[in-house]
Amino acid sequence: MSRYAVVYDACVLYSAPLRDLLLELALTDLFRAKWTDAIHEEWIGAVLRQRPDLDRARLERTRVLMNSHVRDALVEGYEPLIGAIDGLPDPNDRHVVAAAAHSRADAVVTFNLKDFPAGVLDRHGLEAIHPDRFVRAQMDLGEAALGKVLGCVRRCRERLARPPFSVAEYLDCLERQALPTTVAELRMFASIL
């Protein structure tokens, strides 16, 4: 298993297609994925605010499955560090940095790069990385890693059965998840996805 670890911010877990891909990638051991119950509460709450028609119990089941299938992902015991995190534009993000520091993560995967300034993260040995850059970087770790990423993409697409997605439709879906660089690379492998 890789020593490189990342904390998934709630914003990258909000969208089901991106969450599915990030979780599938977390099972490859190319890196160690981390999150907290507070992060779960954020993404579940955001989904329910936008989609009140969804059942909270179903999203809670997703939380349980995430925690049980991704090895050592749930970070606990970080709460005492929250008060020591300062300098973030949004103080409500301190728990994410505290969890990343406590778990000795290397990065926070987030869309909200401006909310995690390098000057603050540097003090904790962290960086903020956009999910497009993060997923694309996994593809550059070598031939074996590329094969794992392509396999993840194929499994995610094949799980979509109602309705099924063609490769082109699924790649378009990923592009709508703000993964243009990743999708541009994946299109070169469309015949095996």
Integer average pLDDT: 96
Name the quaternary structure. Answer: single chain
- Helix tally equals 10
What is the CATH superfamily label of the largest domain?
5'-nuclease
Shape: globular
- Could you say what the CATH architecture of the largest domain is? 3-Layer(aba) Sandwich
Number of domains: 2
Number of strands: 4
Strand order of the largest sheet: 2-1-3-4
Q: Into which percentage range does the β-strand content fall?
A: 5-15%
Any idea what the radius of gyration is? 16 Å
Protein structure class: alpha/beta
List its salient traits.
4 strands, globular, 52% helix, 4-stranded parallel beta sheet, 193 residues, 2 domains, Rossmann fold, alpha/beta
